[in-house]
Design brief:
Number of strands: 8
CATH architecture: 3-Layer(aba) Sandwich
Order of helices and strands: HEHEHEHEHHEHEHEE
Strand order of the largest sheet: 3-2-1-4-5-6-7-8
Structural class: alpha/beta
Radius of gyration: 19 Å
Helix content: 40-55%
Shape: globular
C-alpha cells in the first residue's frame, strides 16, 4: 500500500511540474552566447522567463546556459548556424515543442570593417542577417501563432533609409531588409495575434560594436526589451521604446 501511495504522489508531482512548465513564459534568443544576446537572456531570465539560448558554437552556448542555471534560472542551449539552412531547420524542430511566447532574432554579423564592396561578403551578410532569421521565424510560425507570441528583430539605425549613409553595403542593406521582414510579418500575422517589431539597440560596446561605442550592453538590452510588454504595438521600428524613422 505504501509503495502504491508513494508512486501515486510521484505521478502527481510530475503532473504539477508539467502544468507549471506550461504556464512559464518561454523566450528564444539567437546569438545568445555573448554581447547583446547574452545580456538579453540574463534580463529575460530575471523577469521570469525560461530561456532558450541559441548560437553557432554549442559549447559556448551551453557554458552560458549553465552559468544561468547555477544562478537558479531555467536555461537550455541549442545549436543554430544562420549561415546554414539545414541548421536553421534542425534548431527550429528542436525547440518547436516549447510554448514560445517571445522570439528575439539577435544574431547577426558585421563583416565589412575596413573593406570595400565584396559581393561574397554581402551575400554572407544577407544570409545571416536577413534570410536566416526569416527562415527561422517562419519555421516557428505554428508555435508563435498558437501562443500569440512577440517577435523582436534586432536591427540598426544603419539600416534606416531616412538616415542611410555610405559604405558597408552588406550590413546596411541587410538591416534595411530585416526591417522589411518586420513590416511584412506584422501584416501577415496580425490576425493571429503575433506582434513583430524591429529594434535599434544603438551603438553598443560589444565585440561587434567595439570599445569606442557610446552605449553599454545594459542600455542596448533595455532598448531591445522596451517593446516586450503586454500592450506592445506591431510593425514598428523603435529605439529605447520610442518610434524611429524607417
Amino acid at each position: 500500500m505504501l509503495g502504491k501511495k508513494f508512486w501515486k504522489l510521484k505521478v502527481q508531482e510530475r503532473k504539477i511540474s508539467h502544468q507549471e512548465r506550461d504556464m512559464k513564459k518561454i523566450a528564444v534568443v539567437t546569438g545568445a552566447n555573448r554581447g547583446l544576446g547574452f545580456g538579453t537572456v540574463k534580463e529575460l531570465a530575471k523577469r521570469g522567463y525560461e530561456v532558450l539560448l541559441l548560437g553557432r558554437n554549442l559549447a559556448q552556448v551551453e557554458e552560458r546556459a549553465e552559468s544561468l542555471r547555477k544562478e537558479g534560472f531555467s536555461a537550455r542551449a541549442f545549436a543554430l548556424d544562420l549561415a546554414r539552412p539545414e541548421s536553421i531547420e534542425h534548431a527550429a524542430q528542436e525547440i518547436s515543442a516549447f510554448p514560445i511566447s517571445l522570439l528575439v532574432n539577435n544574431a547577426g554579423v558585421f563583416l565589412e570593417k575596413g573593406i570595400g564592396y565584396d559581393p561574397e561578403v554581402v551575400r554572407e551578410t544577407m544570409q545571416v542577417n536577413v534570410l536566416g532569421p526569416l527562415q527561422f521565424t517562419m519555421e516557428l510560425a505554428p508555435v508563435l501563432k498558437k501562443n500569440k507570441a512577440q517577435v523582436v528583430n534586432v536591427s540598426s539605425g544603419m539600416g534606416s533609409l531616412s538616415e542611410m549613409g555610405g559604405g558597408t553595403p552588406g550590413y546596411r542593406l541587410s538591416k534595411t531588409a530585416l526591417n522589411a521582414v518586420t513590416r511584412n510579418l506584422a501584416v501577415d500575422w496580425q490576425a493571429a495575434g503575433v506582434r513583430v517589431n524591429s529594434v535599434c539597440p544603438g551603438w553598443v560596446r560589444t565585440e561587434m560594436g567595439g570599445e569606442g561605442a557610446e552605449r553599454s550592453i545594459e542600455q542596448g538590452v533595455a532598448s531591445i526589451l522596451a517593446v516586450v510588454r503586454e500592450d506592445a504595438p506591431s510593425g514598428g521600428f523603435f529605439r529605447d521604446g520610442k518610434p524611429v524613422e524607417w
